[in-house]
Amino acid sequence: MLELRSVTAGYGRTRVLHDVSITVPTGRAVAVMGLNGAGKTTLLRVAMGLLPITSGSIVIDGEDVTGTRPSERVRRGLGYVPQGQLSFPTMTTRENLQLVAPKNAAAIDQILDLFPALRAVLDRRAGLLSGGQRQQLAIGRALLTKPKLLILDEPTEGIAPNVVAEIERTILELNSTGELGVLLVEQHVGFALRAAEHFYVLESGRITGSGEGGNDAGSRVRSMMAV
Ligand SMILES: Nc1ncnc2c1ncn2[C@@H]1O[C@H](COP(=O)(O)OP(=O)(O)OP(=O)(O)O)[C@@H](O)[C@H]1O
Question: Which residue of 16, 60, 93, 148 sits 20 to 30 Å from the alpha carbon of 117, by its own alpha carbon?
Fold first, then answer.
């Protein structure tokens, strides 16, 4: 379980997150919805320990991890897929995977079973992949660290709808085993609300609403976000 308790954080003197509290129960899928600039990426960076907080606390499985390094949070089960499908562009798909799991062909094979589209581009440089392939590679690399909670920053941004459906199917499948929790931030309600059991609305760095996922969640979130 990941908890952000009354977290305040920002850059220099600019405060971006104000008293933000969210909970991601073990094995559950939670979405944070918010418009451009609401502070979604900042929230994830804070959860990962990539940005210090000025007040509040961050708790993983009941233990206060505020102030610990990102590597410690990875050790405790967080896997982060930053926005922009980051991989090493001059390395091939295979090399990008091997970098995370050297000498573990079986683990890489499992990832390729989850994302079969990557098999066809194993020897292609990551920088030459399509947005969808890059996103699948980025998620695959995060999964190779065997996370308990996969943290996704706008996984559908700039990706063709058929690939979004493919990624959604895979994530739902992994989450349905109860072994992988998911925390994702999104501007677009579709994917996130189909995947998430619970959602929060983040506006100008504050949580202004929350609710359960479900068929009517899209319209509830839209009315909360006034879009
Ligand atoms: N490195 C930084 N230094 C200073 N301000 C920053 C930095 N990164 C983000 N900000 C500011 O913090 C606020 C929140 O940005 P953030 O990227 O967290 O929002 P977001 O909801 O993820 O937006 P988007 O959907 O556009 O990615 C914005 O006003 C942004 O300009």
Answer: 148
Amino acid 157 reads E
Q: Same domain for 160 and 111?
A: no
| C-alpha triplet 188, 9, 22: angle, nearest 5° | 55
Q: Is the CB of 51 under 6 A from ligand 1?
A: no
Instruction: Please indicate, yes or no, whether residues 200 and 174 belong to a single structural domain of this protein.
Output: yes
* pTM for this model (two decimals): 0.92
Both tokens assigned to 106: 């079986």
Within-domain flag for 55: yes
Is the pLDDT at 53 greater than 80? The verdict is: yes
Atom of ligand 1 nearest to the CA of 39: 18
Which ipTM did the prediction report? Answer: 0.95
* Residue 13 near ligand 1, beta carbon < 6 Å: no
Task: Give the distance (Å) from ligand 1 centre to CA of residue 109.
Answer: 36
Answer yes or no: do 139 and 54 share one domain: no
Q: Are 40 and 34 in contact (CB under 8 A)?
A: yes
Q: What is the mean pLDDT of residues 94-123?
A: 94
Q: What is the pLDDT of residues 4-50, one digit of tens each?
A: 999 999 999 999 999 999 999 999 999 999 999 999 999 999 999 99
Tokens of 165: 């459906």
Question: Residue 140 is part of which domain span?
Answer: 90-146
